[in-house]
Amino acid sequence: MDTMRDRLAPVLSGLLDEDPRVAVVLAEIGADGFADALRRHPDRVINVGIREQLLVGAGAGLALTGMRPVLHTFASFLVERPFEQVKLDLGHQGVGAVLVSAAASFDWPAGGHTHMAPGDVALLDTLDGWTVHVPGHPDEAETLLRHAVAAGDDKVYVRLSVQSNAEARPVDGAHLTTVREGRRGVVVAVGPMLDAVLDATRGLDTAVLYAATVRPFDAAALRRAVRAAGADVVLVEPYLAGTSTAAVGEALHDVPHRVLGLGVGRRELRRYGTVDEHVAAHGLDAGSLRERITGFLGGAAGV
Question: Taking the chain, what is the end-to-end CA distance rounded to the nearest angstrom?
Fold first, then answer.
């Protein structure tokens, strides 16, 4: 199966042909995939080199002229390194862009900590007005990329990963979907965490909701699930643990509830290892998730 990132250049190249507003801004990473698009649209495929602050600044400048810029590089270089430009050039100036990242939390362990970004979504949470998509399958990534580019002039972050669920789910860029109904607790699986969550909760009487879009957070869907399954909520996210606990708290502000946020820990793992080894070390494999979920829900989960 191809990866989410494999869909990026073909989808954006097609959109460049279809929509004269679309522009793609790169910082060397991924440039080879746009060679044909560059020949067709030399004024709308721009490679700024390894200058990530300029990447965001140039995108903002294009947006100020009425273009719909799509900016792409690794998450650590797209959100963390040029955060001041994301905050000011886009946010303060009131213009939008589509930021499409790769490498996720630890997709390239050999790159070391400089190429890991488990805090990217939490960092964007300090800013106002961002839509955040976290697809769990290449088909979902393609759908959400198209949705993001078509989203007027909004600020949108699309977080791509080599981690993927076995099958795509219907996604609309806004809503949580119910994958499994239950009466004793709610587990919200984000993006590529769904398969592990389904394995971890097999045989348990828990509801499983799927989120491929986490900002804005679908409070109404969570409230419906809580009414049916009880007010114990477990979040399983492929980035910094607890990133969306505040969103759950806001959704359930008038409902007594407990919430457990599972995800990537804050401790830096300094051995390179593999993606699967990082997943296990952070307790995000199915066996570890089952232990942590049942430990939180206790006897309420049922079997």
Answer: 34
